[in-house]
Amino acid sequence: MQTVKGMVQVAKTTYRIVRLGAGTYEVIRILDDSRVGTFRSFPRLEVTSSQIEDTLMREIARAAVHGAKTSWIGRLDLP
Predict the structure, then answer these.
(1) Where are the chain's structural domains?
(2) Which of 7, 17, 22, 31 is paired with 70 by a 20 to 30 Å CA distance?
(3) Whole-number pLDDT of residue 9
(4) pTM for this one?
């Protein structure tokens, strides 16, 4: 079941965070409704980007975690 967890803004662009499953999230750029990648928050932060740089995808994931847009499980490693 997919659940929209909220929005985050990084580098003046807004992204929708969608929960795909336990600890797995999809990132969609609002501007053009494009899927830009996914990230996993458990057991360690892992990003996969399809249209943007990995560093930007990591910042989006960090913003989602810090902004409470993900389910907190208390074990996330954010380097």
Answers:
(1) 3-66
(2) 31
(3) 96
(4) 0.83
